[in-house]
Design goal:
The protein is 49% helix and 11% strand. It contains six helices and three strands, in the order αββααβααα. Strands 1-2-3 form a three-stranded antiparallel beta sheet. The longest helix has 14 residues, at 90-103.
Length: 125
């Protein structure tokens, strides 16, 4: 494949999506990975490394930016839901966060999941 073919293939790729069954929420959600631009805005929205609220904000922001209604594709959570998400049962949110991080190119070896493990315990299973 020539460089033009690589360019075309790279530019037409959309973020991966995965349907996640969240029994505690009574059904399934669609988790869509972030685009490169969304990923940059996500990281820019976080406090500096070492901040005591970085891990919490990281979890909440990624969930709000990636969890969608499986039928409409619309985002499920709004900015006004951030406090309620922080106060909710972490189990299902950690499950969805792990998928969102993976689909957004922030795999298990990244700072994202390492921060989450420190804050909330292992999210791998």
């Amino acid at each position: 494949m020539g460089s033009n073919g690589i360019r075309t293939a790279a530019l037409k790729r959309t973020p991966p999506e995965e349907t996640v069954d969240v029994a505690e929420w009574g059904g399934k959600v669609l988790v869509r990975g972030l685009t490169l631009g969304e990923q940059r805005r996500f990281f820019d929205s976080l406090p500096e490394e070492g901040s005591p609220v970085r891990s919490e904000r990281m979890t909440v922001q990624l969930i709000m930016r990636t969890v969608r209604d499986p039928d409409s594709g619309d985002l499920v959570f709004e900015a006004a839901d951030a406090e309620a998400i922080r106060d909710a049962d972490p189990g299902p949110f950690n499950q969805v966060f792990a998928v969102a991080a993976r689909l957004s190119g922030m795999g298990a070896a990244t700072e994202v999941e390492q921060d989450l493990e420190v804050a909330h315990g292992d999210v791998s299973g």
